[in-house]
Specification:
Length: 182
């Protein structure tokens, strides 16, 4: 289910999907419901609940062989740890999410992890890492296409790239990226 603006409705739908998945012994449906609940609880700042559901989604992915989803799950786990102020755990989740994104061919998960790393390093004013991950994020988003992701898009990739170029005193490249972002 694509996120809506009605989080109560999302929670009800994900819980129903989980119930039906368990009833039908459909582990994929149960895993995706956990992933969705984690994302929704993150959106409404119920961090501990979000982490419980993302951990359960990761456990199911590992146990059932749906490892392709781990990259996206770890991206949300990283976002949760950032929100909790546990930056080292967040970074470890995101780096692992990148490794698994490559291993299992999940470009969407790669884009999500690169997005979060770029944002983190921009916020930390780390010019080298912000530029590196901004370029990786742009490349991943170009390969995936904006329609595949509900939380990030091409404009965001170029905005981050523009900010990273400015931080590195590459103003011509920054202006070009900003123009594309608009």
């Amino acid at each position: 289910m694509t996120p809506t603006l009605n989080t109560e409705q999302q929670i009800l739908h994900y819980r129903e999907a989980m119930r039906l998945g368990k009833e039908a012994e459909n582990t994929l449906r149960v895993m995706l419901a956990n992933l969705g609940l984690g994302r929704t609880y993150l959106d409404i700042d119920r961090i501990d609940s979000a982490l419980i559901f993302e951990k359960e989604a990761a456990h199911i992915a590992e146990e059932s062989g749906y490892k392709r989803f781990l990259s996206a799950i770890l991206s949300y786990e990283g976002a949760i740890y950032f929100r909790k102020g546990e930056n080292q755990l967040a970074l470890a989740s995101l780096y692992k999410g990148i490794d698994l994104g490559f291993e299992y061919g999940n470009r969407s998960g790669l884009a999500q992890n690169y997005y979060r790393l770029t944002k983190f390093y921009l916020d930390q004013n780390n010019k080298d890492s912000s530029l590196y991950y901004a370029l990786k994020f742009r490349d991943a988003i170009e390969q995936v296409g904006a329609a595949a992701l509900s939380t990030v898009d091409k404009g965001m990739a170029y905005e981050f790239l523009s900010r990273a170029y400015k931080m590195n005193n590459q103003h011509d490249s920054a202006a070009k990226s900003q123009g594309i972002a608009l």
